[in-house]
Design brief:
The protein has 472 residues and is α+β, with helices and mostly antiparallel strands. The chain has three domains: 121 residues, 3-Layer(aba) Sandwich (Rossmann fold), CATH 3.40.50.20; 70 residues, Dna Ligase, domain 1, CATH 3.30.1490; 244 residues, 2-Layer Sandwich (D-amino Acid Aminotransferase, Chain A, domain 1). The strands form five sheets. The protein has an eight-stranded antiparallel sheet, sandwiched between helices. Strands 3-2-1-4-5 form a five-stranded parallel sheet. Strands 7-6-8 form a three-stranded antiparallel sheet. 33% of the residues lie in helices and 25% in strands. It starts with 24 loop residues before the first strand and ends with a helix. The protein contains 15 helices and 20 strands. The protein binds ligand MV4. The site of ligand MV4 has 18 residues, from strand 8, strand 10, strand 12 and strand 13. Ligand MV4 binds next to strand 8, strand 10, strand 12 and strand 13.
């Protein structure tokens, strides 16, 4: 009988790194492209990585490229990526010192952060008090008001009864919008144009909020017609240093799902840019913010802007900011969480060139219906100025269980014209077969005069989709 072949694992010394790794081992409590994105940042910093995965993600790329992997449950998110005991157990059995949550899932769950803290695990993000306060939109607005941040005119806190809603609407002036305090990102909102509609819309908003968020608290604002969505990336360390990394234009959305983001915005002057970014730093300082965060503003046609909400996590669209500033936001997050100071000052942050990101979703491009399935052919574009953040690969199966975004295609150029030209040829050379994707929709948008001119608000997608329907 041949002797059992002893597996010999070569102890290859970790590659010498310019800096001491912020952590020895980090668990990534996410999946897909953002999980892989965090793994890449960890690799560059010499940090060992632990991937957690559901049974549906057994063959996924973030599992393949992590140093260790732990199956945390079946496909449904509630039983896997949202399963706090399983995620914590995976960190404990692997000895991960820190957890990066990515975006979505547990990334803004204050209770999860408290559990991490109780277990001596470092959460790569802000503290639970900040997450809880900014997650309560009415409380976030009150905090910002006290800090002198401009707000949309609206109710003074929560609106508890229909009569209060009617009185507020009279005082604000129609149209008004009723928003769920535990909502955000467009969830739990109702627009109302007159007093007759208000009682029913008010009740609908509250009952929907109760179902969606377990909290039916609502507040009201003047509804701003055709605003632009401008958001500012900020980073803070544990020593009170807070720096903005410029703004992102995120007005191309469909049903509150961002489709295209860019930095800088083509709609604002340098003077307005400086005011909005300074206000974002002021807002972050008001809550003692640290790690990566984004302040969302609505911008009206007169150039006035208003605080909308603050996101206490890294965002899907962070790459456009990375491309124009040259700052690796995820690496900075890891360093900050390990107690290091920001590696840059505000004077070091320079926006150079222009970046545009198209979210490639596995959906019918015209109907937006999810199209899960197997990738039978794949070619990602490359060449000057192109970045692709994805966890897709040839023969990968896109499960129906999770959100449909399968890749982010980012084009960078010296100016918006060059970035647009690169995005067009990148979309022309992107091949994804086996599932439908939104790439053809993006290619059409890249040729639309409104998009090329930069003259679009958050309403633009509605009109564009109506144009497409009329053409068919
Ligand atoms: C608004 C608004 C107009 N007026 N609030 C949508 C998502 C959430 N971040 C807040 N949103 C809005 N709040 C007032 N007072 C319009 C929107 C809105 C929107 C904002 C940004 C980007 C896309 C949007 C699409 C629809 C509605």
């Amino acid at each position: 009988m041949t002797a059992a072949i002893k597996r010999k694992t070569l102890k290859v010394p970790a590659a010498p790194h310019a800096e001491e790794p912020p952590f020895k081992k980090v668990l990534i409590a996410n999946r897909g492209e953002i999980a892989l994105r965090v793994i890449l940042a960890c690799k560059e910093l010499g940090i060992q990585t632990v991937a957690v995965y559901s049974e549906a993600d057994r063959n996924s790329l973030h599992v393949r490229f992590a140093d260790e992997e732990v199956c945390i449950g079946p496909a449904p998110s509630a039983k896997s990526y949202l399963n706090i005991p399983q995620v914590i157990a995976a960190a404990e059995v692997t000895g991960a010192e820190a957890i990066h949550p990515g975006y979505g899932f547990l990334s803004e769950n204050a209770y999860f952060v408290e559990v991490c803290q109780a277990c001596g695990i470092n959460f790569i993000g802000p503290n639970p008090e900040i997450i809880r306060k900014m997650g309560n939109k009415a409380q976030a607005k009150a905090t910002m008001q006290a800090a002198g941040i401009p707000l949309m005119p609206g109710s003074d806190g929560l609106v508890e009864t229909v009569d209060e809603a009617l009185a507020n609407a009279e005082q604000i002036g129609y149209p008004v919008i009723v928003k769920a305090s535990a909502g955000g990102g467009g969830r739990g909102m109702r627009i109302c144009n007159n007093a007759e509609e208000l009682p029913e819309l008010y009740h609908t908003a509250r009952s929907e909020a109760k179902i969606a968020f377990g909290d039916d608290a609502v507040y009201m604002e003047k509804y701003l017609l055709e605003p632009r969505h401008i958001e500012v990336q900020i980073m803070g360390d544990l020593y009170g240093n807070i720096v903005h990394l410029g703004e992102r234009e995120c007005s191309i959305q469909r049903r509150h799902q961002k489709l295209i983001e860019e930095s800088p915005s083509g709609a604002i002057t340098q003077e307005l840019r400086e005011r909005i970014c300074a206000m974002a730093v002021k807002a972050a300082r008001a809550v003692g913010y640290y790690n990566a965060g984004t302040i969302e503003f609505l911008l009206d046609k007169r150039g006035d802007f208003f605080f909308m909400e603050m996101n206490t996590r890294v965002q899907v669209e962070h790459p456009v900011t990375e491309m124009v500033t040259g700052i690796d936001i995820v690496k900075e997050q890891l360093r900050i969480a390990a107690g290091q100071r920001l590696t840059f000052t505000q004077a070091d942050v320079v926006q150079r060139g222009h970046a545009i990101e198209c979210r490639i979703n596995a959906e019918d491009p015209w109907k937006f219906t999810p199209c899960p399935g197997r990738i039978t052919a794949l070619n990602f574009p490359g060449g000057p100025g192109i970045r692709v953040d994805t966890a897709m690969y040839q023969d990968a199966v896109i499960p129906p269980t999770y959100d449909s975004m399968v890749a982010k295609l980012i084009a960078y150029g010296n100016n918006r014209t060059e970035a647009l030209a690169r995005m067009r040829r990148a979309l022309d050379t992107l091949v994804i077969e086996g599932v439908k994707t939104t790439a053809p929709l993006h290619r059409k948008i890249m040729d639309h005069p409104d998009f090329i001119s930069g003259g679009f608000s958050t309403k633009w997608m509605e009109t564009f989709m109506a144009e497409l329907d009329a053409e068919r």
